[in-house]
Description:
- By secondary structure, the protein is mainly beta.
- The protein is built from one helix and eleven strands.
- The strands form two sheets. It has a six-stranded antiparallel sheet, with no helix packed on it. It has a five-stranded antiparallel sheet with strand order 9-8-7-2-11, with helices on one face.
- Strand 4 and strand 5 form a beta hairpin.
Amino acid sequence: FDSCSVADISSFYTGGPLTVVSETETQVDENNRVIMNIDKNTSNRFYVYGKSANSRAAMLASGGTNHFVNYSASANGKHAARFDTNNYSVCVNGGTVTDFVGNVSLPDVSGATMLIGDDANSGNSIEGHIKRLALYNVALSDAELQAITS
């Protein structure tokens, strides 16, 4: 199964808008299977994971407040999550973009560790393979999210 850890991501992510794109193939499609976690601490992080069979979530924690975009999809396929101030969305396999409704501030993840396919806090690995993971230091548009996941 695929997983890796990158300590102190400040060499390639210094804060601000972020888009995460992943293409995964899993054997277990169930609760808490982590795709990507940029974690300074549990109060400040970006998190993309499986909630249960055919249910995913992108989560942003800022200053101890958790904000979720929940969406129905298998863990298999192409997922994109856009994180920006008051502009927080997900798209799967070129489908409809699902937005978080409400005010969202970006977390301070300076010096954070990025975990791919695993979460040091829970130990719930993806139990599969990550074919591709890309980070963009911009908030991609709805059309770009759909195109990149098609």
